[in-house]
Amino acid sequence: MNRKIFKAKNIQQAIANIKEELGSDAMILSTRKIPKKPLDPYAKQMFEVEAATPQYKDVKSNSNLNHGDLVESLKDDIADIKDMISIAGFGNGMRNMVCNHFESVGILAALLRAGISEAKASDIIQKASCLMDENVEQGTKIKSLKKYVMHQCLNQIATKDFFNRNNRSGVPNVAAFVGPTGVGKTTTIAKLAARLSFQKKMKVALISVDNYRVGAFEQLKAYASIMGLLCVPAFSSQDLSCALDRMKSMDMVLIDTAGHSHFDKPKIDEILQLIKTDFRISAHLVLSVTSESIIMKDAASAFSVFNPDTIVFTKIDETKRCGKILDQIGDIQLPVSLVANGQRVPEDLIVPDKKQLLKIILGKGQ
Ligand SMILES: Nc1nc2c(ncn2[C@@H]2O[C@H](COP(=O)(O)OP(=O)(O)OP(=O)(O)O)[C@@H](O)[C@H]2O)c(=O)[nH]1
Ligand SMILES: [Mg+2]
Questions:
Q1: Domains, the chain, ordered by start
Q2: In angstroms, what is the span from residue 203 Cα to ligand 2's centroid?
Q3: At a CB cut-off of 8 Å and minimum separation 6, what does 356 contact?
């Protein structure tokens, strides 16, 4: 292999020089920012790129080359190229980040592919790089960075097994599920009710305060009938108080609310008034990961009037980009209690711990 080092003001210029001198077959082996001379105030930033021209006939004629190794090494090269291409599509900030932390390319590309935002991914890499030992050997740099990135991600995640709580001296755990239309509130309640009553042997009852959508109560009632659970409608906060009064011996009461657009503040306020009773009712914000990040963020803001205790993420089976969960958790600052991964009741429900949630976020946990 014919190696050569090129110096230029920026990477683009260096690559242009490489193409001119070594041709378009040239391969980039490494890039590096040359540190400025500390005592020279006029010193300009320079970059160093090492490139080489491949010698195809060596590869073909080298009888010692193990075919499996060659395939593996080609696979690695292709993966590196894919990583570079996926990062090239992002802005200057991303490209600078890669120049400053070249060992981060693969990890950064994986975070972006998982659906984590550009800002969040670069923030994580930067924080992880700061923690890394400067003297770590080149060969173990990637491994070490990966470890710190995982720590950073785990630090930003909070989970809470909120519903696993028995009746405390005559006070049931009462939980209302709130959120935009069609995100899976009713289905998640049905899954959770089944899990708590059959697996955890808890006494569970359901209340629907969804008086808005035709057939909403019947939908919840149908699930309750299959499971043999008590299920009643409530049309006012007085109704709800009466129902909760009758359910004092229950471990858990789950309240299904109507879904509304996050722009419809009066309707959201109506639900808020409806669930105002003397009973302590926790709220759980349900968001579908199929929604755009900005819509999830706006919805979380609109439903924050309920002062939710936890977030529930649904429909993770419908996307390969669950990384947006990490962005949402960062913005909303609430622990995740449940994750729904399909339409099947009761199977498709996960009560994640931090590591499980991180796997889901990175697209490895379904
Ligand atoms: N793929 C997938 N579909 C889901 C999931 N959770 C719910 N659904 C589906 O989403 C649709 C809406 O679910 P619902 O439970 O009725 O949603 P909702 O939030 O109660 O809807 P509204 O009460 O109308 O606001 C149904 O077809 C569910 O089967 C999930 O985790 N994955
Ligand atoms: Mg519903």
A1: 1-65 (no CATH), 91-155 (no CATH), 173-361 (3.40.50.300)
A2: 22
A3: 159, 350, 365
